[in-house]
Structure formats: C-alpha cells, structure tokens
Write a structure and sequence with these properties.
The complex is a heterodimer of chains A (438) and B (332). In chain A, 43% of the residues lie in helices and 20% in strands. By secondary structure, chain A is α/β, with parallel strands linked by helices. In chain A, strand 4 and strand 5 form a beta hairpin. Chain B has a domain of 207 residues: MetI-like fold (Orthogonal Bundle). In chain B, 84% of the residues lie in helices and 0% in strands. At the A-B interface, helix 2, helix 4, strand 6 and helix 6 of A face helix 10 and helix 11 of B. Bound molecules: adenosine-5'-triphosphate and magnesium ion.
Amino acid sequence: MAQSDAPKLSIRGLWKVFGHKATGGDVPASIATKSKADMREDDGVVLALKDVNFDVQEGETFVVMGLSGSGKSTLVRTLIRLIEPSYGEILVDGENVLEYSEQELVEFRRRKTAMVFQHFGLLPHRTVLENAAWGLEVQNMPKAERLERARETLEMVGLQGWEDYRPAALSGGMQQRVGLARAIAADPDILLMDEPFSGLDPLIRRDMQGELVRLQEQLHKTLIFITHDLAEALKLGTHIMIMRDGVVIQLGTPEEILAHPADDYVAEFVRDVRRTSIVTLRTLMEEPGLQVRESYTPSKAIEEMARVGVVSAFVVDAEGHYVGVVSFNSAAEAKQRGDATIVNACISDEYPALAVNTPVESALPLVQHEESALAVTDSEGILVGSVQPHTVRDAMAQEAQEASDARESVGSSALEMEQSSLRTSSGNAEEEKTTTAT
Amino acid sequence: MAISSPSNKKEKRWKGFDIKNHKALILGSVGFLAFSAIVLAVLGPAVEFPIKIGRTISEGIDDSIGWATTSGAWFLDPTSDGVLRFLLLIKDFFEWLPWPIFIVATVIGSYKTAGRGIAIFAVVSLTMMGSLGLWVSAMETMALIVVAVILSISIAVPIGILAARSNLLDTILRPILDGMQTMPSFVYLVPAVMFFGIGDVPAIFATIIYAVPPAIRLTNLGIRQVSSEIVEAAMSFGTTPRQLLLKVQIPMAVPTIMAGINQTIMMALAMVVIASLVGAGGLGEDVNRALNRFQPGEALLSGLGIVFLAIIIDRVTQAAANERQKALMGER
Ligand SMILES: Nc1ncnc2c1ncn2[C@@H]1O[C@H](COP(=O)(O)OP(=O)(O)OP(=O)(O)O)[C@@H](O)[C@H]1O
Ligand SMILES: [Mg+2]
C-alpha cells in the first residue's frame, strides 16, 4: 500500500448548491452546518454536494453509490464542469480544473476525460461509426484516421458489422456499447460513467459489466463509475464511496464496506447482498508459503522444504507463474532418478490454481474435496497467495448462519412467506390428487 | 413518516401563498369596482376616459416613420434596389421556365417527397391552372413567394439561433413576435409603402414582417428542445460552442426549423394576396382586380390558383420535414 505518488484525481471540499450563484472562494459559515433538508426549508435552494473529499489513484475503478437524489450525477458532472461547482477544488494531475479558461476546459475535456451516459446520449442523426468517432471529430482529427480508430474501437466492444446503422436501430445494450466505444476511442485518462448500465435489463447489464471488466484489464483507465446497485459496485469497484443527500457517508474498499458498514444507510444496502457471492478469494488468501523454482535441483528443493519444515511446496517459473506442486516424496524420487531439475517431479493437474477474483461462493465446489492449501493466481497466472479449503468452507458456513439470524430478527421474512405459500400449494396438489383418484 | 413530511410542508407553503394571492386580488377588484361605481354615480353612465393619448402617439409614430423614410434613404434605397434586382432575377427565371418543365419537375419532386397522391394532385391542378389562364400570374406569385421566403429564412434562422442561445433575447423577442403575429396584416402595408413606395418591393417587405415570426419561433424551439443529455454528451467530449451548434443543435433542429419554414411559406402565400393592395402582381392582383370589377367568377378562379399552389407547397415541404424527422429517429 505504499502509494506515495500523487493521486490522478483529487477532490477537495467540493460543494454544489443549486440556486446560489457559483461563487468560489470560501464556504460561507451560514451554510457550512446546514443539511440538505435545512437548506431547502430555509433558503429554497438545493444542496446537491456538501464538502465532498476523495482521491482516485491512477488505474483504479472508483465507484460512487447512493440512492436517487444523493448527488451522484451532480458530482460526476462537476468533475468536467458540465455543472459548475459552488466551492472547492478539482485537481487532475495536480491542476485545478476550476481555474481553467474556456479553451483550457475544452482541451481538458478532449484529452483527459470521456463520459458514458445513462441514456447513452448518442447523436441520432449520425451512424454508429460516426458516433464512435465523435470525440476524435471534435478534436479535429482527419476523417479517414478517426473513422479507422472508431472502427477498431467498435470491434473491441463487439459491434463490428453495425457501423453504418443509426443508433435507433440498436438495442439498449448495443447502444451503450456505442457509448462505451465513443468514450474509449477518444483515449482519455479518466473515464466517467454515470449509471451506464442502469437502463439495461439484468442479463444485458451483467454482460456489460463483464465487458467493462475485460476492457479495463486491457486499458487500465482511471474509472469513475456511478451506480445505485451495490452488487455492481462490489463487482467493479476498487474503492466505493457511498453518498446520501450530498454528503459522503463512507469510503472504502468493497470488503471494508461489507464488513463495517458506517451506519444504517450503508447497512441497508449491504443487507441484501450475499457476501460470499461478492467477496473474492483475495480476502481469504494467505501468503503462498514456500515457493521453489522449477529449475531447482531435487536436492535443493528437498533442502528448502526441510529448512522451512513442510512436506510440499508451490513450484513457479522464473517469472513467478504458478506451475504446480512438488512434494517431499516426489522430489526424493526425482533425486533417486537423477533428474537435473524438479520439473518432472512437479504435479500440476491435480493441483489447479484458483483465480484471485473468484467469488468465495464459486470457489467452494473447487475446494470441496481438497485437503491442503491451493494456489491463488492473478489474471496473468502469477502466484499471489494460497487458500486453505477450510477457510472457504468456514466463510460459507458463517454467511449461512448470519443469513438465518437476519431472517429470524426480521420476523415475517419473504422466505417464510414463500415457504408458507409453498405449503398451501402442495396441500392443494394433494387434494387434487385425491379427487382425481376417486 | 420521513417521506410524508416534505410533501406536507410543500402543501402548506403552497396554500399560504395561494391565500395571500387571492386576498390581494379580491381586495383589488373590490376596490376598483367601488371606485368605478362612485365615479359612474357622480358623473353618469356616458363618462369618457379622462386621459386621451392615442392620437398623440399615433401621430408621433407617423412622424418618426416619415423621418425614418427621409433620413434612412441611404439604407432604404439600396435595400429596395437589391430586393428588386433579386426579384427580377427570379421572375425572369420563372417566366423563362417552359410550363411542361415546371409541371414535370413539380410532379417528380412531389412524388419523391410526398408520394403518389400529391403527385397526381400536382399534375391535375397545374394543368388546370394552365388551362384557366392563370399560368403567368401563378409564376409571378411563385417568384414573389420564393424571394420573400428566402429573405425571411435568412433573417429568421439566425435570429432564432441567437434567441436559443440567449434567454434574455428570447424574453425580449417573445412579446414582439406575439405582437407581429396577431397584428392585422394590413397594418404592415402602410409603413411598407412609406419606405419603399408602391409595387413588389413593399409587398415583399410586408410579407417578410408578417411571415418571419413562425420561422424564428420554431428555429428557437428546435434548438432548445434538443435533449439536454445529448447536448451534455456532445459537450463532454470538448466541443466548442460553434461545433455544438453546427454539428449537434442545428442538425437535430432541422425538422422543427423546416416546420417553421413551411409555416412561413404558407403565411407568405396569404400575405402576397393582401400585398396586391400595394401593387404586388400575380394571382393576388388578379383577385384584387376582379373584386374591384365585381367579377366573382374571376376572383374565385384566381383564388383557386392560390389554393392549389398552397396545397402543393405545403404537402411537399411537410413531407420533407417528416422525412428528415424519420431519419433523425433512426427509421432509415
Ligand atoms: N439543475 C438542477 N437544479 C436544481 N436542482 C438540481 C438540479 N440538478 C439536480 N438537482 C438536485 O440535486 C440533487 C442531486 O441530484 P443528482 O441528479 O445529482 O442525484 P443522483 O444521485 O444522480 O440521483 P439519480 O440516482 O436519481 O440519478 C437532487 O436533489 C436534485 O433534485
Ligand atoms: Mg443521476
């Protein structure tokens, strides 16, 4: 966590009051203590953002979450000054965006950021290709070049063949892919997304989330992602910021938010999420323990295991990619055979690695019949940790316990109602059976 | 509970405001009634308004228009000249145009935009106009319309665009346009004659004043009604105001602007007839002459000629606007 370099984006004391003239300077003491409701009551103005502070590191996915009206859209729009904030600072790469002149702002929007909108915001009179090229057109890139770039980006989002259609001919999900392509084609440092998938039906939404994760692995953009869906936030976010009535309630990693909701508002969000379907092996894993290079001689491997006091070890290649497991016995056999290295002693098929972003829930069937620790690898196959099968099983058990506790405390839960309706319907079925029998 | 409280407050405030409003209104009306009753009781029912300034003002306006005519000559004369030259050019063209070519071109044009029905209507009505002896007058009217409409649009669209970008201008313009549209069209003829004398030029001038408001209004509306999310999306990529206007707002406003132009054409057609009072030629002149000579048949036929022209032009421009609208909605 030694993130000593400056954040990509840094928000300091950001306020937005709709109804006041944007004033700049210091926040007047008269409003500093008021809540959104107070402001509406007393002054008839809307407090949309109240003293918002946060940092976003380069390459991370920063999710902003909150119920309707909590100021998410306002926040993301102030970042590129589609809405002028009332007070505060917006620092991107150390420069205060609020001090930019008109031309500097235009240039900033062209080079540094791109935005994806909930209702897509595509130009209906342009083709899909022209829409995707919009950012480049605005930058005055020559036509052939920008269309070529747009074509490539459309291909990245799986829309080849649709270039010459108009947006209205596409489904919602596809239109948002165009929106995504348009943003990516402009090659910004920072991607802003205001509930991009909220308008899509759940299946398509999941698709698009997957798509975004995949793209993000390729592109490593700094992502500011707005949503009101916690599952989405947890799936995508490296950090999650929860807002209510313009105030930041909690900011943390997904795991922190799940484990320690700051207040009832956050707890309410968290309650319905099955933690094990969200929390990944990253949270459960431990240090990988002893690693041996596949180029080691059998004697060296044995020596190492003896020194640490274990009977098996993970084998990695020179770059740290996981190769398999070597046991004390197999190394000893290899030594007897006179092998030069432990490559042949290494067992790989019986000990598959688990991806670090596997949800705990999905990992359970994989560890069901395992006894010893399993390797955990990142997306490139580098060994990053190990996980004990019993930790996974314990986490699942704890979750089930908590869920049933919660149901009891709630009382007449939906589940119970479901069960009782099941009972009555099965009763009916029996009756039917008896009547048909007679 | 937390949900119900804000709406409660809102209602209370609304009621409070409302009652206050009523009080003022009721008090005011009662007061005025009482005052008028007293005045009538004292002075009798035939009492006249105590102040009369109508004549002073109208004379003032007469004077200032008179003044503008003489001292504005440096501007009025070249304008008049230019319009006249433009008109002659167009007139020559329509006079030169052999009637078969005009008919064929119109039919093809209306078939392509408005479909078979209007194409058939165009053939029939144009042939009829030819055989009724209205052709020459109709072409003259066409020339007047074309000139008036081109000038109207080149005035209206820029003003509409400016109004869409400035709320202040919009607020100022709104009552002026209302006035221009409700003012009886004859009123424009007088200053037109004072400025430009008798003939086609004052007719065009009056026509422009009469026909320009809908095009201004609808241009303004068309640009303002471009969805704010599309504008935001476009801007978020760093458009300059000029790029936004030329690449987003105007293209998306085209159907509405075209509806405005359609209305402008229709109003110009109506006005061109009235403008025959100040010496404009064409079908309007025919109607006017027939009226003066008590020839209802002649008047009716010439009037029919105007109706035919109006229907063809209206349907074709409307269909073109619809086509564009469909293209915008992605139905192509
Ligand atoms: N142009 C505006 N003028 C006045 N008030 C506004 C304006 N835009 C937003 N607001 C108010 O600011 C507050 C925050 O709105 P915002 O749109 O940012 O919320 P949000 O979190 O994006 O909600 P949603 O999930 O519904 O999109 C709301 O109370 C809203 O009514
Ligand atoms: Mg929003």
